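[job 4471] stage=fold_predict status=RUNNING
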Amino acid sequence: MYNFSLTICKNRIFIRIDCVYLYKFIESMLNRRILRVKAFKALYAYAENPGMSLADTEAYLCASCEATRELYLFLLSSIVPLTGEAEQRIRAAQEKFNPTEEERNPNLKFVNNSLTKYFAQDPDFVKIIGKKKYAWDQYDVFLYNLYETVSSSPYFRKYMESGESSLKEDAALWVKIFENCYEDNNDLAAILEDLSMFWSDDLGYALLCCVRTLQEIGNGGQWKLPPLYQSEMPGSGKPESDKAFVTNLLRKAYARFSEYMQMIDERTPKWDLDRICVTDLCLIACGLAESEAFPEVSPRIIINEYVEISKYYSTPVSRQFVNGLLDRIINKKD
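[job 4471] inference complete, writing structure tokens
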């Protein structure tokens, strides 16, 4: 498992902090911290909609987990149409009544980049993108603006002026594009929000997975659809199932949610439970559920995990609140 820091809501920091890990190819889409986040969000959905059955809540969890890989595929599928936008502009310039010398003899390095050809011709990638019916045709304005941003960047000009021509250099360019042009992009955020309620929060992590894929291909690796769970990897040697981990975590939190709320209520006599942030309640419930479902995991690790998650999904004071309640209840300090 990679030592990721959770900065899903701060995509730029997420990618740059973890760049030292990017040269190792994707083993699976979801690590344990991301799975904890998924379980927490599913429990939050239940807390906000108490009518949800356990089956409904588990279906929400499964959809949330699969959505990360689907977003990864959707983002990778933008490589070919973005290159097509550049090619279309070159053809339009050549067909002008009186094109300039540069327009008659354009620099075709980006249009002919080998990474685009790789994804356009890889049978497995083409098949799965076709099956998912991912298409960027309706987002021509986004592609136009994206190419404007890319083509005006210093790293793109440096790439176009370089005398080198290699898959590694092409992959390095696409890494910069994904790192610099997809995050904090309001137009892309609007597209993702329209397509899936899960995708906006998953963007930072999906971009990290895309970057790892591009770097691996640039180093001579072959693309293959990454398994969703690490324990699904051939020869992983992991006896436990990551899917079982997150499912059992959610089931325990769901089944004992009312009891956990009672535990919290008893330890916060000066607070009305209805006044406590729902995200904090769900984080504490997940921590308590994990400590019961997986007693072999150190309480310190469990508490630290949910405190870290609270930094990005709750209020500024949640860190101390979540830490204190989990410590008192799990370690039976009262």
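[job 4471] summary: Residues 1-26, 233-237 have pLDDT under 50 and may be disordered.
[job 4471] exit 0
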